[in-house]
């Protein structure tokens, strides 16, 4: 089972690489007016969004594998696991919203400033910190 946990953490790290970098691209995309640069950002954002999709799916698949195969009876009564899974739902919504924002930029519909995307970028950092603390410290 430790192999599954190891790959769970590896895939989660790859997923977060995209969740940290994609909003950063949005920050710079929202600040530029150069047509060639805007077209380049559109390509980079699309490629990055779909590059991390398999890692998101594999993170969740490995997690569910451990949940069911490892100790469902125990995990189902652990408050930290409930809180973790709720935050994972937020994370999936955050990733999906990045997809919506990517489409807004693709169709030149973005109306938000780079300041909004700087704050939006911090949300993934807070989610990572909260999930890792919950699953490592198991505070409740
Ligand atoms: C539906 C999604 C997920 C499920 C079902 C899940 C489930 C699990 C389970 C059952 C474990 C083993 C816990 C243990 O007994 O030590 C685990 C470990 C871990 N999970 Fe997840 N997980 C999910 C998503 C995530 C995400 C998105 C992150 C990213 C921050 C994450 C980070 C970790 C870490 C760092 C560990 C290792 C903890 C340790 O070794 O102490 N998981 N996960």
CA radius of gyration: 17 Å
The H-and-E topology, N to C, reads as: HHHHH
pLDDT averaged over residues: 95
Structural class call reads mainly alpha
Count the strands? 0
Indicate how many domains the architecture comprises.
1
Give the ligands present: protoporphyrin IX containing FE
What is the distance, rounded to the nearest whole angstrom, between the alpha carbons of the first and last residues?
A: 23 Å
Q: What is the helical fraction, as a range of percent?
A: over 70%
Strand content: under 5%
Largest sheet at a glance?
none
Morphology call: elongated
Low-confidence region ranges: none
Summarize the structure in words:
The chain is mostly helical. The chain has one domain. It is built from five helices and no strands. The protein has helices at residues 2-31, 35-69, 72-75, 79-106, 114-137. Helix 1 packs antiparallel against helix 5 (114-137), helix 2 runs antiparallel to helix 4 and helix 4 (79-106) packs antiparallel against helix 5 (114-137). The protein is elongated. Protoporphyrin IX containing FE binds next to helix 1, helix 2, helix 4 and helix 5.
């Amino acid at each position: 089972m430790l192999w599954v946990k190891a790959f769970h953490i590896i895939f989660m790290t790859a997923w977060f690489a995209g969740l940290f970098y994609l909003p950063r691209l949005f920050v710079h995309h929202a600040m530029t007016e150069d047509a060639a640069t805007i077209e380049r950002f559109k390509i980079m954002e699309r490629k990055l969004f779909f590059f991390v999709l398999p890692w998101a799916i594999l993170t969740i698949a490995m997690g569910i594998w451990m949940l069911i195969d490892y100790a469902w009876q125990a995990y189902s009564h652990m408050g930290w696991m409930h809180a973790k899974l709720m935050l994972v739902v937020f994370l999936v919504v955050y990733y999906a919203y990045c997809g919506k924002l990517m489409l807004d930029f693709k169709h030149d519909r973005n109306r938000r400033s780079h300041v909004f995307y700087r704050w939006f970028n911090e949300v993934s950092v807070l989610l990572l910190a909260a999930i890792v603390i919950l699953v490592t410290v198991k505070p409740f």
